[in-house]
Amino acid sequence: MIVKVISAGNFWDGLTDAPVGPREILVQDGVIQEIGTTVAAPAGAVRIDLSDKLVMPGLIDAHVHITSRSELPGGFWSYSSAAKALYGAEALKIHLNNGFTTVRDCGDMDVTGYTIQDIKHAVDSGLIEGARLITSGHMISPRGGHMDLTTLLNPVCNATQNCLADGPDEIRSTVRNEIKWEADWIKFAASGGFSSPSDDPVYVAYTQAEMNVLVETASQQDRPVAAHVMGDEAVKMAVTAGVRSIEHGSLASQATIDLIEAKGVFVILTHYAVVRGARFADDDQYWITCGATPAAKRKVRKYKDTLLETAANFAKSQVKLVFGTDLGLHDYRVTGAKEFGEMVENGVAPVRALKAATSVAAEMLSRDDLGVLAPGKTADIIAVAGNPFDDITAVETVAFVMKAGKVYKEI
C-alpha cells in the first residue's frame, strides 16, 4: 500500500481534552506508523494537505439498524431479505461518507433471515464499500415484547420470527443460534419501548432468571450482551444480569445510574431518537414532521419529564457514555452526527460527546485498534473544517474520510 502523509492544521487523538495543534501523520499498510510535528516520509509518499482542517479519529456509531428504514412505507417489514441487504449496503456508505468508519448494528430487521451477516462479509471482503460493521444479530424478545413484529399483523397470519424466545431453554437455543450465524454481540429486549405498538417502556420483558440465562449463555461463547431497556426496574435487572451495554436506559432513576456507574456498564442514550421527542413533546408540528406513530407520541408525552430528568442525570454522572443514534429506526436522511448536538443540549460536555464516539466506544467494543490516533492503530481518520470543541455542529460536515488507510472522501 502507498505511504501517505497527512498534514493536519489541528489534531485530536481521541483521548486528550482538547486539540494539540498542527501534526503530521504517517500511514502505511492501513496503520498509523508515526505522528509528530513533522515525520520522515519516504520518497514517493502521497501527501494529503489538511492544514486548514481539524483531524481526528474516525467516528463510531454504536447503535444503528442498517436493515431498517423508517422513512420508507410501513410495509418495509415485509420487504425481501435481498431488498434489506441493498438498503443495508447503502446505509453503510451513508455512515462512511458522514465520517463514521465503524458502526455496530443493534438488531437485524430481517426477522426471517440473517442478512446482517451477509452485509458484514460483503464489507470485509471489499465487495461493497462502507463503514466497518460489528453485528448484534437480531434483538431477542419475548412474545408480545418490543421486537415481536407479529403484533403488526392479523392473528390469522400466524407469522414466525427467528428472534422470539420465552423461558430459559428457548432463550439458550436462540442465543446459540445467533452465535452460530456469527453475531459479534447478543442483543435482547429487556423492556418495552416507545416505537413498539404493543407494550410500554416500563414493561419488564423477562424475569431475572431469564436475563441471567441469556447473559450466561452468551458469555460461555465470549459474546458481550447489549440490552434494549427503558424502564428503571428492567435496567436494574439487566445490569444485575451482567450486560456490557445499556441501550437507551431512558427512564433510569438516580439510584440505578449510580449502580451502572459502580458496575462500569456502558450506556448508549440515543438522545436524538428518544430524548429529543421529550423536549418537543407538546409541539404538534414536531410530531407531524418527525413521522412518529400515534403510540410513540402518546408514550413520549406520558414520560417526557422523566426522559429529560434521566438524560440530565446521566450527563452529571461518571457513567461511560457511548455514542449511538438508532438510525434506521429513525430517518437515514438525517446525518447521525446530529446526535452530538442532542447530547450537548442535554448537558453532555462536547469533549465527552466526542470521546463517546471514539475512544470510549472503542473501549466498549474491545477494539483497541480503533477510536484513537496513535502509532500502531488502524488508520481511521477524518477531518472537519471547524472546531467541534467550540461548536459541536462542526462534526455534521465531514470533509475527509480515511478508513484503514484508504481515502473514501476528500473535499
From TrEMBL:
InterPro entries: Amidohydro-rel (IPR006680), Metal-dep_hydrolase_composite (IPR011059), Metal_Hydrolase (IPR032466), Metallo-dep_Hydrolase (IPR051781), OTAase-like (IPR057744). Pfam families: Amidohydro_1. CDD domains: Met_dep_hydrolase_A (cd01299). Residues 54-407 form the Amidohydrolase-related domain. This is Amidohydrolase family protein.
